[in-house]
Design goal:
213 residues; alpha/beta; Rossmann fold; six-stranded mixed β-sheet; 32% strand
Length: 213
């Protein structure tokens, strides 16, 4: 039996992110977003509205980088099932991380990975492991041991998802990676507005039929 559908509006997503942003800023204070495509693009852009960094007394937007990962296997129709292997189709373009790029672009940053949902957790675990590999490689290029240790300590990873499904996961988030979820849900079918292929107004009207969770 298919899980019940929970239809979500753009306002639902916006309000959930707005309510969580102050905690993200106070507990993690990111200065770089990594959006996992395609579900993380819109949440990352909304989150940027509520999260600013202050440089020389001026508030500035946090830059957003994108990674493209595929976890779902086509079944020849509209149905999709979770795949067992993550396919990496796009990764961070380090050359665009700013004119003051230093130490490869990641070192010394507080990097927040953004996605719409923590479902099986497969893509999130993959992204963390790949980011850790990039950070390790960039640290190895630092010749001075004291500077390498300082940058290692200053470089932090975090995760933000709009929804976390309370279900068994395919992997664990490392203890030193900050984790933020705006909404906790049971294992339901989350119908995001950007996935609506028909009438978005009807999608919003049918939210009245959402199950109680």
């Amino acid at each position: 039996m298919a899980p019940p559908m929970l239809r979500l509006s753009y306002n639902d997503i916006h309000n959930a992110i707005a309510s969580t942003a102050p905690r993200i800023m106070s507990e993690f204070s990111p200065d770089l977003f990594i959006a996992i495509g395609g579900g993380g693009f819109i949440p990352a852009r909304i989150l940027r509205t509520f999260c600013k960094v202050t440089t020389d007394g001026t508030k500035r937007n946090i830059p957003i980088q994108a990674v493209g990962l595929t976890l779902y296997e086509s079944m020849g129709g509209i149905e999709e099932v979770a795949g067992s292997e993550v396919v990496r189709v796009q990764w961070i373009d380090f050359s665009t991380l700013g004119s003051k790029l230093k130490h490869g672009g990641l070192l010394g940053r507080r990097i927040l990975i953004v996605d719409e949902v923590d479902d099986t957790r497969t893509t999130l675990v993959y992204t963390i492991k790949e980011m850790q590999k990039d950070i390790k490689k960039q640290l190895e290029a630092i010749e001075d041991p004291a500077e390498r240790a300082r940058l290692s300590e200053a470089t932090k990873l975090g995760i933000f998802v709009v929804h976390n499904k309370n279900k068994p996961k395919a992997g664990e988030i490392p203890g030193d990676v900050a984790y933020f979820a705006a909404v906790e849900t049971p294992d339901v079918w989350l119908a995001y507005p950007w996935e609506c292929e028909t009438d978005i107004e009807e999608h919003d009207r049918l939210r009245k039929d959402n199950p109680e969770i």
